[in-house]
Amino acid sequence: MTVRNVDLFNRTGESVSCAIHHSEVPPWRMIAECVLWGSWSFEQPDLYECTLRLRERIEPLGWLLRCNCSCLNAFVSGMARDMSGAQRIELFPFDRDLAATPRIVELFDPAPVHQIGTIEEQEAWLREFWAAFDGRK
After folding, report:
1. Interval 127-137: pLDDT, tens
2. Looking at residue 14, what DSSP letter applies?
3. Minimal CA–CA distance to 91: which of 78, 72, 109?
4. Where are the domains positioned within the chain?
């Protein structure tokens, strides 16, 4: 398993580090260790889904992951899920420039705090993006 240190933060400015242990090949497993909860394990169809399960547990406690998977504009394609277990994801342009090419980034690399959101905020951002892309807006 690979180990990555990922910061968590809350809206009051507190932060804490979390050790993420994850597989690099299927089956896709992730263990998140943190002083806030000890150790939680996840096994999902890909690593992005593992991070979603972690986020579902920490967001009600007021904590957010400070990495690319939590960016409002983060999207994981079916190809990325199939080929790498979603170790790499896409970040769409914040200005919703539909002609721009999304950036491919590592799932657990750090991201700027101002680009991070909850799962609900992320889903809302992506809905608006796809609506504009589809010409519905």
Report:
1. 998 888 776 54
2. -
3. 72
4. 2-133
